[in-house]
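Example record

The entry below shows one chain as it appears in the dataset: sequence first, then structure tokens.
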Amino acid sequence: MNFPGSPYFVLERLLEEYRSGRRTHEDVARSLDIFDMFVEQWNEGLMALPVEPEILPEGEETLEESVNGLGCFSEASGFMRDFLETGDESFAEQALEIARVGHETLEQLYLNTAKKVEQLQNEVG
């Protein structure tokens, strides 16, 4: 998986630091609040993008997939909070799995978009 700054890796690091005792329950909860705020801001930014089917026919689908990818991070944050409250490791594992799906969704969208941009550049010359 590429993009080490991805929200997936942020959650993975938080979990590892909590498990190792380098972060307290309160530290992780505050970090999740900040994490949720950033995900919400990214989502708001996506929703503000104009989608013009005549210019970019797949734009609406791409936007929907992007929102779904970000939704995975919100859901993963909820599972992390469940883990903090209960100590149930299955919640931590679910959080990482859902975050991985979100990461892979957004990563694939990025790679597909980069290919399309390259194709357009080659066509335009």
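Notes for this example: The CA atoms of residues 27 and 64 lie 33 Å apart. The chain has a mean pLDDT of 88.
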